Input
Amino acid sequence: MTTARTIAVAGASGYAGGEILRLLLGHPGYRDGSLSLGALTAGGNAGTLLGQHHPHLVPLAHRELTDTSSERLAGHDVVFLALPHGKSAEIAAALPESTLVVDCGADFRLTDASAWDRWYGGEYAGHWPYGLPELPGARAALSTATRIAVPGCYPTASTLAMAPAVAAGIVSPEVSVVAVSGTSGAGKSARVDLIGSEVMGSVRPYGVAGAHRHTPEIAQNLGAIAGTEVTVSFTPVLAPMPRGILATCSAPTTATAEQARAVYEKFCADEPFLHLLPAGSLPQTGSVIGSNAVQLQVVVDADAGRLIAFAAIDNLTKGTAGGAVQSMNLALGLPETDGLDTVGVAP
Ligand SMILES: NC(=O)C1=CN([C@@H]2O[C@H](COP(=O)(O)OP(=O)(O)OC[C@H]3O[C@@H](n4cnc5c(N)ncnc54)[C@H](OP(=O)(O)O)[C@@H]3O)[C@@H](O)[C@H]2O)C=CC1
Ligand SMILES: CC(=O)N[C@@H](CCC(=O)OP(=O)(O)O)C(=O)O
Output
């Protein structure tokens, strides 16, 4: 019998950490004992029980959260970091190279130090293999990785919506993205602009005109696929729902609707989590809640000369924890879909 691989989750009291734990509890490796859960850590909530923060994670309710330090996290085979931006670099540097570190924060996503400086600031920590297996070449990179940077939730939806069109060269490299997100994308910490009475019954844009830090990440992804610079105009929109992102992306095209559809069918054909809906159906967040699926559609507005691609994801599942577990599976040589469902919860 082989020894179980141990997994630690830093930031376990938060939304992303909680979702990682939810997925791991259903992972076949956890069920057969080949994966086990070690340290679960937090910041100010260290010393409290996980059940106080995630009462839905019944089997782990009794687990005590410990402080977050490289000493606590050392000795595990896999460490998920679900911490605020800027917290990962120091911890990761103190962990052995043999430990698989999967970072849900932004610290290692950007390949351009000047982009990091402009949108985040502080010392640039470098970049790691990017945890979006559906991108060209990503599976090969992830299968040998011991450090993985999980994408942001908006970049996951927007990149996957436009990747087929950009890879096939059927759009000009000028992409517009309007993406509507549920409030869990902002994390669990208290913010006046996120209290119920400010959010309920209202939809509002924020971080407009290139101000949102996901703009360079989306441009980086699409530029790498295109092999040329891609400009991205990104408008995030906050909606009164707990989970989900619907990204509506467009770019100039001369392709017909049939040509565009053929491109998307080919791109999605062997992808376990990419679901191109039948022509005439449009993605909605309600169909992907709790699932790792990405529901896609592509249409062409011939009068405007634009290709429009839609993607719906659960920001906490495919947009964070699902992408993290999918990447872990690849890095550990496990089946990529282990512990990840394409079946959502509805209504
Ligand atoms: N929410 C989402 O949809 C997505 C999130 N991510 C990324 O995942 C990471 C976590 O996000 P999310 O779960 O939403 O955030 P939350 O605010 O919900 O959780 C943050 C977690 O980090 C812990 N923490 C906060 N400050 C410190 C600190 N100084 N030292 C140690 N631990 C600390 C918190 O512990 P405590 O409870 O004790 O404060 C909590 O466990 C972020 O980097 C985020 O960008 C990525 C994609 C999507
Ligand atoms: C609704 C909402 O506030 N969403 C977050 C994005 C969350 C996410 O994916 O991003 P990171 O991992 O890069 O933090 C925001 O706009 O800041």
